[in-house]
Amino acid sequence: MRILIVGAGSTGGFFGAKLASAGRDVTFLVRPQRLSQLEQHGLCVKSPAGDIEIQPQLITSAQIPGPFDIVLLAVKAYALDSALRDMEAAVGPDTVILPLLNGMRHMDVIAKKFGADRLLGCVCKVATSLDEHGHIVQQGTFNDIAYGELDGSDSARIALVHTFMREAGFDATTSKTILRDMWEKWTLLAAMGTINCLMRGSIGDVASVKGGHAFAMRAIDEVVSIVRAVGQEPSEPFLTQAYRLLTLEGSPQTSSMYRDLMAGRGIEADQIIGDLLERANAKGLEAPILALVYTNLLVYQAQSGK
Ligand SMILES: NC(=O)C1=CN([C@@H]2O[C@H](COP(=O)(O)OP(=O)(O)OC[C@H]3O[C@@H](n4cnc5c(N)ncnc54)[C@H](OP(=O)(O)O)[C@@H]3O)[C@@H](O)[C@H]2O)C=CC1
Ligand SMILES: CC(C)(CO)C(=O)C(=O)O
């Protein structure tokens, strides 16, 4: 089986480097700037679990040789439309597309472009960023990826994807509740992004100051009540863990959107916050904290031009 990873950034590069190190057939679809960076310096992952350095197989859009078995889509939401155009030649009748993107909006966009039958649900949990040399830097050691058919069924192709992904140096699981998993991940991320970006600090920074815990609780409550109304009911174990994680004193946890904001990079304000706010507004739900953080992020985007 062959996988094409679209985007050799912090998530695509991370999982791709692990898969390639485990001997899988991995090709990265990249754009010219990343191509020359990776050709010169290789693909490096700096991790507390051990560094990895590989010489990746790289192609640009014009060099796609034909359909791949799996396409792992690992671009930011604002780069989605152009990435879908660039990867067209890699998608054939039997290709399965696994998107690593956060949120839910991309699912409709991909299904519209390539058909829902080519799309699997997918969630990844890893904390990675690119440093100034283009190296992937992992915070913490968690590195989970889960995937499943959108209708929760068992299928031959899920079994094949799992055979390819498992035992490659990260935690790979199949899920029969992948849509709920994606909504839960979005819940976690929207709440975490709100706490980090509005308060400009890690979960622990916010939890340790007067009023910080109460603010975090209000932000989580708001996101959870919206998700209950517009998405899928989160499970009790997820909620227990989310409230604990997002109010934990001493926790250095930050969301990737916050890390991007602090580094002056582009952010996924629309995909992670705006889309949820829009869904809440469409149902006539109050969402004062989401509205506040969304405006805050739009100001950052307007000021930075990102
Ligand atoms: N980082 C994290 O900790 C986590 C991120 N996520 C989600 O994963 C998704 C990807 O994020 P992340 O990996 O961090 O993003 P990065 O910005 O680190 O990487 C995205 C990569 O996509 C490349 N790219 C963009 N457009 C194209 C294209 N048309 N063809 C080829 N390559 C392209 C960019 O390359 P170029 O240099 O050419 O711009 C860049 O290297 C996001 O939705 C994010 O929310 C999910 C879990 C954790
Ligand atoms: C799991 C988590 C919160 C880790 O950073 C993430 O997915 C993200 O930040 O995008």
TrEMBL record:
Pfam families: ApbA (PF02558), ApbA_C (PF08546). Residues 3-151 form the Ketopantoate reductase N-terminal domain. It catalyses: (R)-pantoate + NADP(+) = 2-dehydropantoate + NADPH + H(+). It is an enzyme of class 1 (oxidoreductase). SUPFAM superfamilies: 6-phosphogluconate dehydrogenase C-terminal domain-like, NAD(P)-binding Rossmann-fold domains. Pathway: Cofactor biosynthesis; (R)-pantothenate biosynthesis; (R)-pantoate from 3-methyl-2-oxobutanoate: step 2/2. Belongs to the ketopantoate reductase family. This is 2-dehydropantoate 2-reductase.
